[in-house]
Amino acid sequence: MITTIFRKSKPINFIIVAAYMILIFVIFNYNSFSTDFNELANTFLKLGVSLFFIFILDFIVSKNSLSKKNSYAILTLGLLFGVCPEAFNHSNALIANLLVLFALRRLLSLHSNLTIKKKFLDAGFWIMLATLFYLWSTLFFLIVIVALMYYSQNNVKNIIVPIIGACTVVVLLFAYNIVRFDTYFQSSDLDFAYSLDFTVYNSKQNIIRLTVLVVAFIWTSIYYLNNLSDKNKRLKPSYFIVFFAAISAFIIAFIAPDKNGSEFVFLFAPFSIIMSNYIEDISERWFKEIFIVLLLLVPIISLLL
Question: How many domains does the chain have?
């Protein structure tokens, strides 16, 4: 039923997903609404950035032919925000993820073989800029390395291009710190704190949603990798970049210093692409509905527990 509605890309699907995300945001974050202008503006900023993910993800998927003409990717994105509604609450992680998506967009478009150097430059710039908001975003340089392996085997000079993009951000950071704090570095600029303490997940709500999230990701990823041989040869590097973006996101979630739900936001986009490929390819309608229903039930169960 649900997958049938999103089988084709229609404007109504964007409205449905956006309405669902707004509903989840209001239910889980109603305490964030206040009469204070600054707090209210920050609340709407977080919601606005989250909703913008819908459009940029759809653009990435459709522009790079990462799935057929359907809305399964944005459907999964909306459902994942329902599974981890805490992601709405942390503007730094949301902005960092948005910047990573800008970088991912540039890397996935490399298959066109147009302006390759500029795309690598942009990717290095966006990911490094994301680290200013969420330091562990640096792990997404892994997807830059993967892209270099596929698209620059015969041009070693391209390796230095994303480094230049990253250095541009560093220079801008130096300038800001000198003007603002009269120093090159702040201690927070290089504070790679991490935590392997998972006791915060030791609750019924967290165990249920993490189980659903991990099982769904592993199952769909296995299918995703097994079917890469059937994909267009020109687009195969893009599919690998998406998969390694998901791996980078899982590593971030694993070592994140603050286990507050925001650490999973980096997984939403690559997992949505992986899930959309799974849903559109399997023929058993009832089976693919199971994953959608599970993701839909998680926020309901969380409210009841």
Answer: 1
